[in-house]
Amino acid sequence: MTGLEVGIISVISIVVLIYLGMYIPVALGLVSFVGVFIIKGNYDIAVALLTEAISDTVSEYVYASVPLFALMGLIVSKAGIGKDVYEVANFIFYRVKGGLGIATVAANAIFASVTGSSIASASVFTRVAVPEMQRFGYKPRFTVGVVAGSSVLGMLIPPSAMLIIYAIVTEQSIGQMFVAGIIPGILLSIAFSILILILAYAVPNWVGGVEAEEVANEDWAQMTFWVLIKKLFPIVLLISVVLGGIYGGIVTPVEAGAAGALTALIIAVAKWAISWEDLWEVLVETGYIAATILFLIITATMYNRMLGVAGLPTQFGEWLTSMDLTIGQIMTLYVILLLLLGTILDTASIILIIVPLFLTALDAFGIDLVWFGIVTVVGAEIGLLTPPLGISCFVIKSTINDPNISLFDIFTGAFPFAVTMLLTLIVLINYPSLSTYLLQFGLM
Q1: What number is the average pLDDT over the span 258-282?
Q2: Can you say how many angstroms the Cα of residue 216 is from the centroid of all Cα atoms in its chain?
Q3: What is the DSSP code (8-state) at residue 382?
Q4: Angle between helices 161-170 and 276-310 (to 10 degrees)
Q5: Is-contact 31 10, C-beta < 8 A?
Q6: Which of 32, 63, 170, 206 is most buried by a 10 A CB count?
Q7: What is the pLDDT of residues 6-29, one digit of tens each?
Q8: DSSP labels for 24-63?
Q9: Which domain holds residue 386?
Q10: Domain count of the chain?
Q11: Cβ–Cβ contacts within 10 Å for residue 30, how many?
Q12: CA 193 to each of CA 103, 107, 281: distance values in angstroms, whole numbers, following the listed order
């Protein structure tokens, strides 16, 4: 059996094992080990190669950003900053038809700029936004759909864990990836807001909602200028520390994660919003998230090296080149693969599995890897809203704990947002400058 045959079979085997329910990192590690063993015919070589992959991965300094940003996001959630941001967004948009939906998108976009996690956004705004929107008469499917759709902004608007992982896989600058995510993140936020307005006027019975004046809300009456400043100051401070520090060249992304986590902790303590028990819970959860992601990265590194031994990336790149495909055709093929894999894999797994296969072909076509990373993240994020995996939808279902709202309702509500993401992705593919425009100003 040739290396190419082993490589192709290994990719198919990983997908099959995942469909059968095997834990993704275990499937990657197992198939990688067996693949190298078959190609080399030597147990010791397989062990040595994969052991080296582990040591090289865990010694990478840049991976320290993963637990640090996770820690910051969890502390921010505990501090109730998401609720404060949502209350301000409510105050601004509640008079607009479908305004609470737009407020949820706006609050999610701001919240994403300090957490970088779609899961955190889905969990926080399920608790904060859904009850408020239902109190104003919005339909259940619309409310959970808005939360599910806008939660994906956490993986695109910097600092994003997925942009960090992509930067590591492709050896790109994390700072440049963060800068590249700003305009696409804003564009997607605007697209979601336009969608909500269209739905509110075109299918009002599906959206629901009542006039704001019909519902008493003393909080809005008390929303003075100083109250707005008080609620927004923590988020502005965090954005300044994290993104300002990175773009200003003051700190590295890893140092920004540490500074952001410390700042978030100081804010939480100052607000009396975190106890010792909460802090311990946050630390344990951070450890769980870090271990999960790093274990996935380690086994994906094994998988990438096995593919290298098999020669599959090179052969795949040569095959794409020989097909005489245009860049548009290659991107169409790539997006289809992203959408298909998104039905069974999380975003990180998709990035770690599929990107290495295309790198050789991308070099031949001179494709900008920063732009390609934005396309990858947006394309893979659509899977957060689509069955059967749809992680954001499952998070909302487990968080909302409402028997009257089924998982089907959540997927149905999220569907228009998934379509909007696909349309936005097409725009980003056709206009690469939307992703790379800010880089010309030397922010990183």
Answers
A1: 87
A2: 36
A3: G
A4: 30
A5: yes
A6: 32
A7: 777 887 887 788 777 787 788 888
A8: HHHHHHHHHHHHHHHHH--HHHHHHHHHHHHHHHHT-GGG
A9: 3-441
A10: 1
A11: 17
A12: 9, 12, 35
